Amino acid sequence: xxxxxxxxxxxxxxxxxxxxxxxxxxxxxxxxxxxxxxxxxxxxxxxxxxxxxxxxxxxxxxxxxxxxxxxxxxxxxxxxxxxxxxxxxxxxxxxxxxxxxxxxxxxxxxxxxxxxxxxxxxxxxxxxxxxxxxxxxxxxxxxxxxxxxxxxxxxxxxxxxxxxxxxxxxxxxxxxxxxxxxxxxxxxxxxxxxxxxxxxxxxxxxxxxxxxxxxxxxxxxxxxxxxxxxxxxxxxxxxxxxxxxxxxxxxxxxxxxxxxxxxxxxxxxxxxxxxxxxxxxxxxxxx
Length: 287
Ligand code: MN
Prior knowledge:
Shape: globular
CATH architecture of the largest domain: Alpha-Beta Complex
Bound molecules: manganese (II) ion
Number of helices: 8
CATH class of the largest domain: Alpha Beta
């Protein structure tokens, strides 16, 4: 099932180029009192939500997929985990290009581990990217995104995919420069996720997904997840050996070679096998 959030916090199901409005399924979620949980309540209750969605779908109204505003499919992730340099050819291009590495030693992921992006940087695909620091290089990074479905710590790789609620397309937007990744990749709107969550029963094997990114129609990145250095199960094993993963935690799995700059006015398209296609506008800072 392809589950999305759209327009004014509506809940939808994508099917046959239409979005079916199943917002009433949110009624199964528990009423919240302060303090709110530090995980995503919808993802934590996804099975119950899906049961209600199935009941609502036959009578649900629908609109064309191109007519809606997509919000992030996960509203309240507790954290956004990201894998740096997780494709060998991207490691090679990063080490070769001073505009990418900025005298930072580009180390193998097995040595430097994972990093975190601020949850305040998260937007849906329709929001677009608002560039900051336009005098600096701002790059696109197309990535497969996995969303954690249940709490886990020290998850073995062999069991890891059973902890995944589903998958989405991600843009790990990046300002190049000398600062820590967690700063350069946490600017507002620099974590784009969408258009929807493809539940893991529909996409059971994320280990061989083709995907490609274009800017204004020009091909930039083209890869397959079989070339990941740490596959998705290994990333989950690694991350959960340092911290508990919670429902709704978002994992950016790393970008392949072909990263490059974007400027205001550009449009980024990403197509990903088994998930779909996103179109993301890039804007210059407001004067
Ligand atoms: Mn990245």
